[in-house]
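Hi support team,

I've been running sequence recovery on a batch of backbones for a student project. Most finish fine, but this one hangs at about 90% for roughly twenty minutes before it completes. I'm not sure whether the input is malformed or the queue is just slow. I've pasted the structure tokens below so you can try to reproduce it. Let me know if you need the job ID as well.

Thanks,
M.K.
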């Protein structure tokens, strides 16, 4: 199995870096603070911007109250990097893209302090282009984050491959028009049949190129 693309767009949490323990620790504290169960909070938040989750759980809160919670969570999540590690194959894949000059960006729902902290804690190569919470008006599952990511690489979204693990992010990338490599995609997930490739690990991915048209070829082994 192979795909062709001119650029590559990566989600961060759950795709390149395992930050699950940090995310759940911090959001469980949020749940305790507002009287919501950990299961209720955790089942909603993944892949979504923090502001979306805050407005979901605090529909009656004022803008000032929302921002207070936002900065409280941001501080916790940016300072707590215990257990953050690169997921298998992530460092090797990004290093390979740098070696062959392939353009790539990180497209994350996190803020700059959170995203940079996790990238550094995981030992991931730093991208030239970041699309973070601060740069979007509508976060995932809206297509805007991946449209901005493709724009940062100076290519149309259809010429980019997006790597995602969360349902909201996969929907965002598909709606933007990207080809999508999903790192896990549960049976029954909406739009699963539109995903080009589903892998269990980035170790299954290799990239060659560029060819005379400036295209890079992505090869996938051991498809799930």
């Amino acid at each position: 199995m192979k795909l062709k693309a001119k650029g590559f767009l990566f989600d961060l949490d759950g795709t390149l870096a395992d930050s699950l323990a940090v995310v759940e620790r911090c959001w469980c504290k949020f749940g305790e603070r507002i009287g919501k169960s950990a299961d209720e909070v955790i089942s909603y938040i993944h892949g979504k911007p923090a502001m979306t989750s805050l407005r979901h759980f605090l529909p009656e809160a004022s803008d000032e109250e929302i921002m207070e919670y936002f900065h409280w969570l941001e501080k916790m999540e940016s300072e707590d990097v215990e257990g953050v590690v690169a997921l298998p194959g992530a460092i090797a894949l990004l290093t390979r893209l740098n070696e062959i000059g392939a353009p790539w960006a990180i497209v994350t729902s996190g803020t700059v302090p959170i995203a940079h902290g996790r990238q550094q804690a995981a030992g991931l190569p730093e991208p030239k282009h970041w699309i973070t919470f601060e740069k979007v008006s509508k976060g995932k599952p809206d297509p805007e984050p991946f449209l901005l990511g493709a724009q940062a690489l100076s290519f149309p979204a259809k010429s980019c491959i997006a790597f995602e693990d969360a349902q909201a992010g996969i929907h965002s990338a598909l709606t933007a028009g990207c080809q999508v490599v999903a790192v896990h995609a549960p049976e029954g997930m909406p739009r699963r049949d539109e995903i080009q490739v589903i892998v269990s690990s980035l170790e299954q991915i290799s990239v060659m190129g560029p060819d005379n048209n400036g295209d890079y070829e992505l090869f996938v082994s051991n498809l799930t």
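--
Follow-up from support: It reproduced on our side and the slowdown came from queue contention, not your input. The chain has a mean pLDDT of 94. No action needed from you.
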